[in-house]
């Protein structure tokens, strides 16, 4: 499923195209998509296709098309502090974007069938926390991934505000999914070639809305010996953050706010507005008038002087066009580097602020989440 929008050259191009096609419609979803480079979740040698609106699969590793993820993110109506369950969490790409929106006081859990994919997701999450400048722009809810079949979740598991299932759900499993949802919560999942948004309006009442025609591989039911009981999947516990962790969250938030107030433009760049081409209008000298029928029409009479002026103007037009093309080429290269919205430069202002504090080095390292740069 995919191909609904034009291919981009980088992540910002992809997001621009998703916005233009109205798959991304809200600012918070746009910010999350721009903060997480889709190409970082591809294997080496496969990244050339990262910014096309296409699904990608290599062994057990799988990413849905960008247009699917954007519709899912919009349909979930995410807010800070919500609990989220990702059934078939895969590479963790979607869960990481969700974590940027629901913030440090949310809950972010994922269940994935394949052990190797869970390990891959943990590696990508660790790389994002340790190396991405985008991490310092948000209060983050770190996803927790567990291995298991999402159709075998323990019956006494807690419920969630938001749930997404990334595989095709058969109709007879619909109620099973609904039970995992809190009253007032939203479940997004594919059923019978339709991506559906289900809102739980009461203990026994739901509202459904079709979002998009899709094609998903079905949920996998593990093979087991006849009569044997499946191993129930235990979801991660919902725990309260430690006082130490809460202190780190609030110190970083305070420093970020202070830095933004002191230097609102420091470390930020914006894409320059696109330049418009100017068309030259060549003025022709009118030498005489002629009658055509009963109308008097001016007619330009060429002379050697006119021909010389024409040649000079033609040469000037060519030089101007070459200059304009060179400027546009340079501008396009710059735009690919900085994107169409504000992003961090190479200088990480929050990191710089922390490093200037009169604190022990070990505490600075803790405040930076042990980031490598």
Provide keyphrases for this structure.
10 helices, two-stranded antiparallel ribbon, single chain, seven-stranded mixed beta sheet, Rossmann fold, globular, alpha/beta, 373 residues
Summarize the structure.
The chain is of the alpha/beta class.
Task: Provide a descriptive summary of the structure in words.
With 373 residues, this protein is of the alpha/beta class. Among the domains are: 80-239, Vaccinia Virus protein VP39 (Rossmann fold, 3-Layer(aba) Sandwich); 289-338. It has helices at residues 11-20, 27-35, 66-76, 93-102, 115-131, 174-179, 243-262, 304-338, 349-355, 361-367; strands at residues 56-58, 61-63, 83-87, 107-112, 144-147, 160-165, 181-191, 194-202, 205-213, 268-269, 286-292, 295-300, 343-344. It has a seven-stranded mixed β-sheet. A hairpin with a 2-residue loop joins strand 11 (286-292) and strand 12 (295-300). Helix 2 packs across helix 4 and helix 7 (243-262) crosses helix 9. The chain is globular and about 95 Å long. The two termini are 37 Å apart. The model is unreliable at 267-287, 289-294 and 337-345 (pLDDT under 50). Belongs to the methyltransferase superfamily. L-isoaspartyl/D-aspartyl protein methyltransferase family. It is a lipid-anchor.
Q: Determine the N-to-C terminus distance.
A: 37 Å
Query: DSSP helix count?
Result: 10
Number of strands: 13
CATH architecture annotation name of the domain at 80-239: 3-Layer(aba) Sandwich
CATH superfamily of the domain at 80-239: Vaccinia Virus protein VP39
Provide the β-strand percentage band.
15-25%
The fold-level CATH name of the domain at 80-239 is Rossmann fold
- What is the overall pLDDT average? 84
The radius of gyration over CA amounts to 28 Å
Order of secondary-structure elements: HHEEHEHEHEEHEEEHEEEHEHH
CATH class of the domain at 80-239 reads: Alpha Beta
Structure class: alpha/beta
Give the low-pLDDT segments.
267-287, 289-294, 337-345
